[in-house]
Specification:
By secondary structure, this protein is mainly α. It is built from 9 helices and no strands. It has one domain. The chain is elongated and about 55 Å long.
């Protein structure tokens, strides 16, 4: 691959990552709900799923991925279930405003793992990254000519774009979270956050 190819790949990723979608919305909601660490962990799950799809495209396993239909439903149900659990936690925070800056039971190793798993489920079942990596990407890049070093460079570009995307979304959401807490209206943000997570869970199941 040439420098122009890498630049084109980075530009396409920029559009993909910053285009509003359920993944970005859920990452922001997770930050508002449980703080920036959970936001970055959720984003880490998203980029893991994206790397999976680009690996599938480069290694020529696209046909095999089409045979994973039943397994995709397992991932969808699991991801939606975790998001609904997060929504329940947010609604609990709304009902108990005396602890608005703390989400019970999520700032633990298990909580971070659940956040990460929910993030992974998003790109594995969301049509947008699937179409991009398995449809659009092969149309403008000769994936058969991608070498191991090219692949590693592409993953590095993806991680860099993830850092930029997550930094913007999580950073702004964290500032908004602090502003809401300072004005004593965080509990209403928790209610909205819970509603958003319910909607994203439904989108995850029906798309």
């Amino acid at each position: 691959m040439t420098l122009a190819s890498y630049a084109a790949f980075a530009g396409a990723l920029f559009v993909l990552f910053f285009t509003p979608g359920p993944g970005n919305v859920a990452m922001v909601a997770r930050t508002l709900d449980a703080g920036p660490v959970h936001g970055f962990v959720y984003g880490g799950g998203i980029i893991t799923g994206d790397i999976f799809w680009v690996t599938v495209a480069i290694t020529g396993l696209t046909a095999l991925s089409a045979q994973l239909g039943p397994s995709v439903w397992i991932v969808k149900i699991a991801g939606a279930g975790v998001l609904l659990w997060f929504a329940w936690k947010a609604f609990q925070s709304f009902r108990n405003p005396e602890t608005p800056d703390r989400i019970r039971g999520t700032s633990t190793r298990l909580g971070y793992l659940a956040t990460y798993a929910a993030g992974v489920a998003m790109p594995l079942t969301n049509p947008k990254p699937i179409v991009f990596y398995l449809g659009f990407l092969p149309a403008f890049l000769d994936l058969e000519a991608v070498t191991v070093s090219d692949y590693l460079a592409m993953v590095a570009i993806m991680l860099a774009m993830y850092a930029l995307t997550a930094g913007v979304h999580v950073g702004l959401a964290h500032r908004a979270r602090g502003w809401l807490k300072a004005r004593g209206i965080k509990r209403w943000a928790d209610a909205v956050t819970g509603l958003i997570m319910v909607i994203v869970a439904v989108v995850l199941l029906v798309r």
